[in-house]
Amino acid sequence: QFFDLITLSQVIEHIPDPLQLLLSLKDKLKSNGKIILSCPNANALNRRILGRRWLHWHVPYHLNHFTKTSIGLLLRQAGLEIISIRTITPNLWSVLQLRSLLTSPEEGCRDTSWDLAKNGSNQERQKTILECISLKAINISFRKNGIVFAPYNRIVDALGLGESLLVKACMAG
């Protein structure tokens, strides 16, 4: 079967061979079909500020990291052409970034910040009382007022330095 639209929402960074994936998806597109994909932006402002503490290094799940330039090169190598590319930052990601800074995962260990519903387990390191209070406050503030981070995120997105790349591509030519 051939498709008008194929979406990859936060997938390509997890794939061992992203070029092979794009080549196989291109073969499934109709001649006027499009691929829309999103992935963390390795040129995000938060990555530049936070360095190794950036949420989207996401050890050990993210195998690849992309910038606008590198995702463009990969798409062209797969015979695809970028129609548009911009950044978008989900407000939830700002909450997760704050949680990650508070939980300080050990290098090489899975970051449990992504486990919003998790109240803790025996496998996690013991949290201090300050960390527990801070995490609870972040969760409550997000639930009560999800737009707390929106102004910052929209400005950063307008500058092209947001957390996620949103790319629309089609067959080259």
Write a concise keyword list for the protein shown above.
173 residues, alpha+beta, four-stranded mixed β-sheet, elongated
Can you walk me through this structure?
Helix content is 36%, strand content 21%. It has a four-stranded mixed beta sheet with strand order 1-2-4-3. By secondary structure, the chain is an alpha+beta fold. It is elongated. It is built from six helices and four strands. The chain has helices at 18-26, 45-50, 68-77, 91-103, 129-144, 150-158; strands at 3-9, 29-40, 80-88, 164-171. The model is unreliable at 117-125 (pLDDT under 50).
What's the topology here?
Elements: E1 3-9, H1 18-26, E2 29-40, H2 45-50, H3 68-77, E3 80-88, H4 91-103, H5 129-144, H6 150-158, E4 164-171
Parallel strand pairs: 1-2
Antiparallel strand pairs: 2-4, 3-4
Strand content: 15-25%
Classify the secondary structure makeup into a structural class.
alpha+beta
Which sheet architecture does the biggest sheet show? 4 strands, mixed
- The number of helices is 6
Shape from CA axes? elongated
Order of helices and strands: EHEHHEHHHE
Radius of gyration, whole Å: 18 Å
Would you tell me the overall average pLDDT?
Answer: 84
Q: Which bin fits the share of residues in helices? A: 25-40%
